[in-house]
Amino acid sequence: MASYPSDLDIAQSSKLVPVKDIGNQLGIAENDMELYGNYKAKLPLKLIDEKKVSKSNLILVTAMTPTPAGEGKTTTSIGLAEGMNKIGKKTTVVLREPSLGPVFGVKGGAAGGGYSQVVPMEDINLHFTGDFAAIEKANNLLAALIDNNIQSLKNNLGLDPRTVEWKRVMDMNDRALRNVVSGMGGKPGGMMRETGFNITAASEVMAILCLAEGMSDLKEKIGNIYIGDTYEGQAIFARDLKAEGAMAALLKEAIKPNLVQTLEGNPAIIHGGPFANIAQGTNSVIATKMGMSLTDYVVTEAGFGADLGAEKFLNIKCGYSGLAPKAVVLVATIRALKYHGGQSLADVKEHNTVALVKGLANLEKHIENIAIYGLTVVVSINKFITDSEEEIRIVKERCEELNVKVAICEGWEKGGAGATVLAEEVIEAIENGSGSYKPIYDWNWTVKEKIEAVARKVYGARNVEFLPRAKQNLRKLERIGLNDKPVCIAKTQNSLSDDPKWLGRPVNFTLTVREIEVASGAGFSIPITGNMLRMPGLPATPAAEGMDIDNEGRITGLS
Of 63, 174, 317, 553, which sits with the fewest C-beta atoms within 10 Å of its C-beta? Predict the structure, then answer.
């Protein structure tokens, strides 16, 4: 079996182009780029041109239900953008920023892999341009203002501490901080109450940043953040604390998208990073529109499977921004198909056509889901060296039976040259496709109806059960004014159902909604299904244990 260098070795051995030259490729004047060293830059929002956005072609990359091994969605997105540029289509890839939690935990970074990466890889995965830190500080400023108002006699809003659900955040997996007691130390410590920490990617401030259209919109959305109720039952928002101005000031630079490059010297814009199982899972509206203002094609991705990131991209992001993809790329791997067909994770590299055929049901459901939106899908088989020709043939033949375009992507091994076939299929889908985007529910439907639409149409549920607390929350949403907004369902990424152990294509199941959280700043409600952790923990052997840096500043062990 061939031996390949690590992602980090490939990234560190690449010759980077100065970012000002990447900007020049896009027609950006050097004085319009805010340089962060030689290879990173912030882009001003004035470069967004709505007329150009309307003429550009947006390509959404999503995937079948993921497995612990990972399906390479980001790698495919980057490889596709490289392939598009190779066949003469001016293309930018637009991605989310990595969170330090997964980087030091088990999943690793989010800069692609092999010869389909964005660089500088170490910087992108570690701090980058400080956007996550700014979001963290803005979130925690609001938390400090809340506690200060509770204990203060001056300008006290009468906020009932028992109703406050706003938590502090940090960009690290630290399970010990999930539930804490704040305000200890007697009177100087403030009012003692139960609270906790979320990971930064789960902050509503992150969701807001990724849906905001500009600074004034950002401030308005921040002001709309629901904090809790007074003792009399009156809703209190961040604007009541006069928090939006200072919080937006902390986000002055973070609102600007980041320009970097691919290994082949093509433009990449990276901005924002909400998780897709508990938030909307897509990069910012601003970044997507920036890419569409600068190139004819934009490749972007949505987190986890098409039931999560893509559903939220299409029902939330598209609804707020007016954007719509011209084609959808659905990433599948042979090993993931075998896993969903019952083969153990330890053995997914082994030849098994029986498990493969059984696992195709998962892929077929995701293909159906994309068709619900009226969009044309191209299946991309992210090829691994352990895949057999027979296994690949089986997947191709099934896609052809379903009248779905399919292509092998070898971007990880060959970069853009390994993704030109996929690029050609995507271009054909855009130029000859007859699909037209349509959402699967009307925002004016009741919250219950919207949840049921996603559960039945996308997940394949037979019924939806609302537990008592969820029913109480429905009344709360009406009081706060979220009835006419989209829903952002929090669900496990490991299954189409709300049971992470139910692989393949679950049928005849009941989706259980435990509670519904308020995200009035972001402009959606968050129905919670299953046990959703907003502060993950580290694994028994964290990736951090294998990382180091030498006296010359060369990092090792980052993936």
Answer: 553
- The yes-or-no answer on residue 276 being catalytic is yes
Q: What is the pLDDT of residues 481-521, one digit of tens each?
A: 999 999 999 999 999 999 999 999 999 999 999 999 999 99
In the structure, how many helices (H) and strands (E) does the chain have?
A: 20, 23
**The one catalytic residue among 40, 42, 73, 398:** 73
Position 551 in a domain: no
304 counts as catalytic: yes
Pairing relation of β-strands 258-262 and 267-270? antiparallel
pLDDT at 107 over 80: no
Host domain of residue 48: 7-130+254-431
Residue 73 bears catalytic tag: yes
Active-site residue among 230, 384, 445, 476?
384
CA atoms within 13 A on the CB side of 38: 5
> What phi and psi, each to the nearest 5 degrees, are found at residue 54?
-65, -20
Do 298 and 384 belong together in one domain?
yes
> Angle between the 353-372 and 389-401 helix axes, to the nearest 10 degrees?
30
Count CA atoms closer than 13 A to 79's CA, side-chain side: 32
**Is 455 a known active-site residue?**
no
Q: Could you tell me the two tokens for 99?
A: 């969170």
Contact 212, 278 (CB under 8 A): no
Edge to edge, what strands does the sheet with 463-466 contain?
Answer: 463-466, 510-519, 524-529
State whether 115 and 172 are in the same domain.
no
Which position among 42, 86, 96, 534 bears the catalytic label? Answer: 96
Q: Which of 431, 460, 475 is the last residue of a domain?
A: 431
Active site annotation includes 412: yes
Catalytic annotation, pick one of 104, 166, 197, 412: 412
From 75, 76, 129, 420, active-site residue: 75
Catalytic residue among 63, 276, 287, 429: 276
Instruction: State yes or no: pLDDT of 532 exceeds 90.
Output: no
Bridge partners, residue 408, by sequence: 381
The verdict on whether 386 is a catalytic residue reads no
Q: What is the pLDDT of residues 117-161, one digit of tens each?
A: 999 999 999 999 999 999 999 999 999 999 999 998 888 999 999
Residue spans of alpha helices (H) in 14-99: 19-25, 50-55, 73-86
